[in-house]
Amino acid sequence: MRYRTSFLLFLALPLFSSAEPPCPFGVPILAQVPPGTASTIIARPGYSLLMNPDLKIALWVHHHLTPSALRGTARRAPCQFRPEPRIAPALRAELFDYRRSGFDRGHLAPAADFKHNQAEMCQTFYLSNIAPMVGAGFNRTVWAQLEHRLRAVARSQGSLHIITGPILDAGPGARAIGPNRIPVPQAFYKVLLIRAHSETPAALAVAIPNRKFPSSPGAAFTLTPFLLSIDALELRCHLNFFPDLDAQDPDLEAALERSTPALWQALE
Description:
Blueprint: E1 12-13, E2 29-30, E3 39-43, E4 47-52, E5 57-65, H1 95-98, E6 104-107, H2 118-123, E7 130-133, H3 135-139, H4 142-157, E8 160-167, E9 176-177, E10 182-183, E11 187-194, E12 202-209, E13 227-228, H5 230-237, E14 239-240, H6 245-248, H7 250-258
Parallel strand pairs: 1-3
Antiparallel strand pairs: 2-14, 3-4, 4-5, 5-8, 6-7, 8-11, 9-10, 11-12, 12-13
């Protein structure tokens, strides 16, 4: 989606160097945001993210999932949840914000996508990569199923760029947890980009409400009701996910952002 420059604001503190593969069509940027909103890009070897210190939550997290990243012996056991060391204590979530909150510390870039490297897996436990998720019926079931299916797609297709983030509720009934008032997202999204077996990429957006879904043993979760165009997601999140395409190839941008390609039937 193209935005008029007069409505574009993107403020970031210094970008940390990293081996993290860049988003292939540009780092997602904020659009139509209130003046004075400052955000910080943090890049690590496995993922990068845009942190909003005012809200103390990441607006997006990008990682590049490949079959090699899924091969290895890294384990969750040595990893510990930790506050983000690159953000000042007054501007970040703390462990006590989640304590007795009733919500899971839900990963945005999943730990299981980093089996190839123990250090990279443990870096996914920084609270900048975490958001409050409903546990039973969402994080441990529906969301976990989606992550599992994406790993299967990466194994079969060879390369998958994933952007994950929260859809926040700005209304008067918006929920928050802890002394730092970490917002509880209304939903979570994933933007998926793959080149498949050709030079033409395909993309899709999924947005799933952050609530408990009923389930029965062995039942598969159907994603179809939660598929949406990237254009529609951009309006909900006030983000432009593929900004470089505005100048490089607006026709390709339109095709990517308005469609839900048949390729993603593999997720069902």
